[in-house]
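note to self — DONT lose this again. spent like an hour looking for the file last time. sequence + predicted structure for the chain T wanted, 361 res
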Amino acid sequence: MGAGSRQRRREAGTRKAVEPSLALQMPIVGRTRDLPRGSDHPSALDALSCVTRALRDRVRFEAPLADYTTLRVGGPAEAFLRVRTSEELTEVVLACRRSNIPWFLLGGGSNLCVSDRGVPGLVIHNRNEDLIMGEPIRVGTGHSLAGLFRRSVSHGLVGLEFAVGIPGTIGGALVSNAGAYRRSIAPLVRSLEIIDGQGLRSVGPEWMEFGYRDSRLRRSGSTGECLVSVELDLVPGDREGALAEARGYQRNRIFRQPWAPSAGSFFKNVYDVELARRIPGLPKDLREAGVVPAGYLSAECGCKGMVRGGCAVSPRHGNFIVNLGSGTAADVRALADEVRRRVHLQFGVMLEEEVLYVGEW
């Protein structure tokens, strides 16, 4: 096995005999600073005292985050503010950093499970859709991924066909290195505009330390650094061919994936050549590549249709947890933990979530 295969195994799955009770302790996004709701830390309005009046007037308190996530679960944001441009995003994030206010950047709301207790501090709803079309294109991280495909292909630029059915924003796609059909967004990145301890600056794609459905921001919890915009290397190409390819991907998603509210694919696929060879039902190309879909493992363990409270593992796809209408974040996590437990017992693999747990748990 080559170095690349070993790296993929480290990133996507492991077959070590992990103690389930320990392995289920996944990192939580949004609580890296010990500033609980109601403590004496400065308020969000204190942090925003130095920003424009127009921004301060947009702040809402106890905003229900279930309204802003595709899974439709989660408690309130202590404070909530929508930003619409790179300048507004930069102004607010720098103000929070100066005042030591905990903040969380929310995009399209996919790939997240927000705690029923909500999120302390300021939730910044990133609707920064700034766009400069060219080669490369520069786009704000609040732009929807699917919308960017449509706008870029209308200008004859191709490369995002695989992303047409992926929900969420460019920023979220970068944090999780989103992808489908053996492709991902990382190879398209030329440069990024970020905010970190050095302020607003430009960096190359190596700064992101991309991995399989992973990046440095995902590993750090996305709380100390912020993506403002990105340059993507989309190239001139066959517009009609790109649209036809995208329509094929979209049809496949419609037929195979559930329509009920979900966060998207819940677990990462497993890269394990030995395991793939032991599963005769896998398609030949997956078996040769050593890829075992998480949905296959979930289904083999009898998880499809499993219900906890108001949520279920989709009967259509074993890697989707759906909200039946009255679901809670606790229901989602109970289902995820049970899927992980069953797969570990039957296959010796500890599945890793694609979905991030956000807030106070």
